[in-house]
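Pipeline run #58 for the internal structure catalog. This entry was flagged by the ingest filter as a single-chain record with no existing model, so it goes straight to prediction. Upstream metadata was stripped on purpose; only the residue string is passed forward. Reviewer on rotation: M.T. Logging verbosity set to normal.
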Amino acid sequence: MPVSLALDLYRNIQFQNSIANGIYLNHAAVSPSARRVVDAVTEAITFSSLDPEACFMEKFFPAWIGARKRLAALMGVPDQDLAFTRNTGHALSIVADGLILEPGDNVVMASCEYPAVTYPWMAQAWRGVETRLVAPNADGTLSPELFAASMDSRTRVIALSWVQFTTGYRANLAEFVKLAKAHDAILIVDAIQGLGALPLNAGELDIDIVATGSHKWLMGPHGCGGLYIKPSLLDRIHLVNMGAVSVVNVTDFDGTRFEPKPNAQRYEEGSPNGLGLVGLDAALSLLEEAGIENIAESVLSNSRHAAESVANRGYIVDSPTDDAVRSGIVMFHHPTRPGQEVVEALKAARISASLRAGLVRFSPHFYNTHEDIDAAVAALPT
């Protein structure tokens, strides 16, 4: 069966009427829950109301294991090296707070980054760590050469979003890995705007640290994040965020024996977000069944169609159009109308989009169709 036909059938089965109030093109903000996710969480919370201990062992604990395996596979890393966190910012803060740095060391990142990327490093100013902000090129791209110009012998970290939330620019992670290695720096990647929409193999690329969250392209519930740390870096990160689940023998309940886990899971400090993991495991199973290569084909087809269609409508596209650096995000603006006015017009037509940095943002996922996009574009004011 052709990929396009298989995905059409899949969409109809899993996402029919998932958005009852219109067309949803806002996955870079937060995704809707598919029926499987709703059913799994509903079943778990009902079970918990009847027998909470049994629910933990029969629902929450298996989801803790299952979601970890699925998320690690999607990242392309060993599951034992992946820890669950509350969100992307929590994951990045663990690293920023724990990484061994000296006064005068610096961290280089883009000036257009999402605050979850920049704030954890700006908060290290108290210990003399400098943050250096790199302005993007006029077209919104962020080349390794731009970063290199701000790096020196005291650069310890490059912090980077795989996909930029205000442009949709997708970084060439392999090139940034080379840059980090050339400067003996650590590359820390926020993958939330790409993971679940595009293939990633962080292990093969040899990325040092990856953080993500569940509620965007992964289509999971709020309140779950993931943190991958290359094992060789653990000795360079202080033990922060410690708790009862951080140790090897979790069920000993012996507060006098402190033996941290030998991997990133040492930063899972306590009881997990059980319901969140149940929902995330269900959401990841959907992505797994659809296949990330198929998903990426559909996502990029949708974003290309959206960019071409809004341009034909008289709007100016602000996202990169080169296939090598495109993502699922399409930013655009009207030549004269304010972005807020455009978003309000879309909302009135029951179409969900976002306003970021004064620009309108479409972010269709794999189950959206070109017909969805055509209807949204037709609702744009001229």
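catalog note: The chain has two domains: 3-30+291-378, 45-288.
catalog note: Residues 52-75 form the longest helix (24 residues).
status: ready for reviewer M.T.
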